[in-house]
Amino acid sequence: MADNRKVAFITGAGGGQGKVAVEKFVGEGYRVVAADLFLDAVEAVCDAVSSRHADADILAVGLDQSDEESLRAASRQVREWSGRIDALLLFAGVVQRDGVPLLSMRTEEWDRVHGVNLRGVFLACRELAPLIPANSGGSIVTISSWWGQSGHPFYAAYCSSKAGVISLTQCLASELADSGIRVNSVAPGNIDTEMHRAALRGEAEERGITFEEMKAIEWEKIPLKAAGPPSSIVDAAFWLASEHSAYVTGATIDVNGGVKMR
């Protein structure tokens, strides 16, 4: 018997936000393609989610979002597995390794950040969006950043890559509107993932203070006084993928605790 459940394709599924997204969409009744660079990490997420949801149907895929052939292979796998995608959620992304002046930045670091964050989003949309049937309520959700809405010194590669994601989202939303496919972005602020905590630990070590002191300094800058849980981003992405946002396209939704207000 055919499985008529909707299908969500989630990149970055092994990361802090991505694995929460897998759990969310499975719990909401979706079949899920969970994709990330390291297949063993994705499989571990799939096993954990499946242990909590008896009806889970998850396809684990090893995927390098910055590589064309990797995305083409993933597209072929999905065509064989489900034949379609209803929601494409692009959580995969990287941060700059260090804050450096633009005039001192190594080309390799610029290319690494843009390769995943911007080129990778372009490639993922190009290779996977054709699997979304026209006029079926399909949706694409990108993950940008509040740092993509203004420039921040010493992080030019990251800021410009995320600014590009916002612009790409708007371009694609206009191009796919006639097909009834919506394209939107979520712009996170500080999110309490292991990546965020690792950055705080590194900064604390450089300053010679404790992690808790560093966390207090950074979180005090946030009007809501805390980094958001990964679920805050996933909930926004789920809303954008659902019929509840049927009249929203080309939008960037701020989920940042108030660090940037427009």
Strands, helices and their partners?
Blueprint: E1 7-11, H1 16-27, E2 31-36, H2 39-52, E3 58-62, H3 68-81, E4 87-90, H4 107-117, H5 119-128, E5 139-143, H6 156-176, E6 182-188, H7 194-207, H8 211-220, H9 230-241, E7 252-255
Helix pairs in contact: 1-2, 1-9, 3-5, 4-6, 7-8
Characterise this structure.
Helix content is 45%, strand content 14%. It contains nine helices and seven strands, in the order E-H-E-H-E-H-E-H-H-E-H-E-H-H-H-E. Strands 3-2-1-4-5-6-7 form a seven-stranded parallel β-sheet, sandwiched between helices.
Helix/strand-derived class? alpha/beta
Mean pLDDT: 95
Strand content: 5-15%
Summarize the main sheet: 7 strands, parallel
The order of strands across the largest sheet is: 3-2-1-4-5-6-7
The helix/strand series, from N terminus to C terminus, equals: EHEHEHEHHEHEHHHE
Any low-confidence stretches, pLDDT <50, length ≥5?
A: none
Number of helices: 9
Multimeric status of the protein: single chain
- Overall geometry: globular
Radius of gyration: 18 Å
The percentage helix is 40-55%
The N- and C-terminal alpha carbons lie at a distance of: 49 Å
Total E-strand runs: 7
Key words describing this protein structure:
seven-stranded parallel beta sheet; globular; alpha/beta; 9 helices; about 45% helix; about 260 residues; about 15% strand
In short, what is this structure?
By secondary structure, this protein is α/β, with parallel strands linked by helices. It has nine helices and seven strands, in the order E-H-E-H-E-H-E-H-H-E-H-E-H-H-H-E. A seven-stranded parallel sheet has the order 3-2-1-4-5-6-7, with helices on both faces.
